[in-house]
Amino acid sequence: MSLEKNQQYELMMEDMGNDGEGIGHLDGMAVFVKDAVVGDVARIQIIKVKKQYAYGRLVEVITPSEYRVEPVCPLARRCGGCSIMQVEYARQLQWKQDKVMNCLKRIGGIANVEQKMEPILGMELTGSEEFPAIRYRNKAQFPVQRGRDGSPVIGFYAGRTHCVMDTDVCYLQDAVNDEILRRFRLFLQDYQVEPYDEVTNTGLVRHILTRIGKATKEVMVCLVLNGKELTGIVDRRKRNVEQEFINYMKDISGMTSISVNVNRERTNKILGDTCRIIWGRDTITDYIGKIQYQISPLSFYQVNPKQTEKLYAKALEYADLHGKEMVWDLYCGIGTISLFLAQRAGKVCGVEVIPAAIEDAWKNAEMNGITNVEFFAGRSEEVLPQQYAKTGERADVIVVDPPRKGCDPAVIETMLRMAPERIVYVSCDPATLARDVKLLTAGGYEVDKVCPLDVFGHSSHVETVALLSNRKIKPDSYVSTEELDEAKRGM
C-alpha cells in the first residue's frame, strides 16, 4: 500500500521518537504520531509524507497501551510543554535512559556503553497520590495576548504555535502561580491594561514571569512590558497603575519581589536587559543543598532544585576532588556548580558570557563565605584559551555545562591541550553530548561513567552527567583543528 495524505489507518505504536511521539510502521515507512504511546493500537490520519517517513495525527486510541495514563492536566495534549504526560512515569524514565544510551552509541561511537550507564535518577513522586512528579518547577513565563473578544488571554503557547491557550493552572508549576494568575487576570480586566500583540508590536503587557524559592518559599513577580511604565484606563482617574498592581500582588503568601522589565524589541526573547523594582527586594533567595543563591529576574537558575541537587552531587562525585585540585567550570551561570565544587577543590574558576550572571556569581560566593573561587565574564571559547596562554596553569578537572548546542570547538580543543585528568560533562541534550564526547575520545579521553537525570518530568528533555578520564595524554599535546574536523567528518 502507498501512504496518502489525509487518509486514515490503524497503527500499532512500536517505539517512542526523540520528542516522545509514538512510532509505528506502514508500508515499510516509519510514521511519527504525536500524543501516541508505545503499545497503543490507534487510528491515525496521515498529515505529511516524506520519502522515508511520515507524520500522523492521533484520531482515536483503539486499544490503549499498558503505559498510557490520563494526564492530570486537561490541556496536556494541546500544550507544547508536557509532551509525554500521557506516558506512565516509570516508562518515561526508561525512555530517557534509552535515549541517552542510544545517542552515545550511535552518534558518539562509544563501545560497551551499556556497561558505563548508571540508572537514571528520577524525581521523587512529590505530586498528588493520583499523579506523580508535578508542581516541581520554580520558574514560569506566561505570555499575554489579546483574545478574540478583546479580553486578555494568559497561559502557554499551544504546541508549535504562537497562540496562547488561556490557562488557570499549570501542574508543573508551584501552586502559588494559580493565585498569581487569578489576581493578574483580574487586574488586567479591572484596569483595562492592554495585552501585547506580537504581529503589530502594539499593546503593553507581554509576559508575567514568576520565580519561587522552593526552600525559602519566597516569591518573585516580574511584568515584561512593551513600554517603560505600567499604564491603563485608571490613569484618567489619577491613580497609579503600578501601585494598583502591587496592591493585587503584595499579600500573596511569600511575596518578596515585584518588578517591571522593559522589552520593546520585536523578538521571541522574553526579557529585556533592564529591570526596575517597584516593590520589595530585587532578588529572592533559594538553596541547592547547603549553598544559598540570590536570584534576580535575569538570573539563570535551574528550574527543579531538588533534582539539581542530585545533578550537582553527581558532578561532584565524578570530579573526585580531594581539596587541592584546580578546577575550571565553563558556562557557569550564577556560579551554581562552581560553589558546589569549591567545597572540595583547591580553587575553582568559573566562566560565563552574561556579565550580570558573573556579578551574581561573585555575590553568591561572598554570601556563602566561599573564597577559593574566581569568575570571568566572557565566552568560554575565548576566556579559557586566553587564560591558559597567559598563565600556563593547567586544570586538574574541567566541568562543562554548555547550552543545548554543546561546546564550541575552541573549548574542546583547549581542553584537549590542557589535558586535565578528568572532564565532567553536564548536558541538557544527549545528541550534542554524544557529538562532543566523540571529539574528546578522539583526542585521548575515555568515557568512564554516564548518569542520566530527569529534571524535566513529563517533557522530552533529559539531563546527563558524563565522566571522561585522561588516557595519560600529556598537557599541551596539541590536537589541531584539522584533526577535530577529521573526527567530525567521521561521525
Could you name the key traits of this structure?
Rossmann fold, 491 residues, OB fold (Dihydrolipoamide Acetyltransferase, E2P), 3 domains, globular, seven-stranded mixed beta sheet, alpha/beta
Q: Which stretches are low in confidence, meaning pLDDT under 50 for 5 or more residues running?
A: none
Strand neighbour order, sheet with most strands: 9-8-7-10-11-12-13
Give the name of the CATH superfamily of the largest domain.
Answer: Vaccinia Virus protein VP39
Distance linking N and C termini:
35 Å
| Beta-strand residue fraction | 25-35%
Which overall shape is indicated by the principal axes computed on the Cα atoms? globular
What is the arithmetic mean of pLDDT? 92
Main sheet attributes: strand count, strand direction, barrel closure: 7 strands, mixed
How many β-strand runs? Answer: 22
- By CATH, the architecture of the largest domain is named 3-Layer(aba) Sandwich
Counted by DSSP, the helix tally is: 11
What is the CATH first-level class name of the largest domain?
A: Alpha Beta
How many separate domains make up the residues? 3
CATH topology annotation of the largest domain: Rossmann fold
Rg, alpha carbons: 24 Å
Helix-residue proportion: 25-40%
Structural class of the secondary elements? alpha/beta
Please describe the topology of this protein.
Elements: E1 8-12, E2 15-16, E3 22-26, E4 29-34, E5 41-49, E6 53-63, H1 89-106, H2 113-116, E7 139-146, E8 152-157, E9 164-166, H3 176-191, E10 205-212, E11 219-225, H4 241-249, E12 255-262, E13 274-280, E14 284-288, E15 291-295, H5 305-319, E16 326-330, H6 336-342, E17 347-352, H7 355-367, E18 373-377, H8 380-391, E19 397-400, H9 409-418, E20 422-427, H10 430-442, E21 445-453, E22 463-470, H11 481-489
Parallel strand pairs: 4-6, 11-12, 16-17, 16-19, 17-18, 19-20
Antiparallel strand pairs: 1-5, 2-3, 3-4, 5-6, 7-8, 7-10, 8-9, 10-11, 12-13, 14-15, 20-22, 21-22
Helix pairs in contact: 1-10, 3-4, 8-9
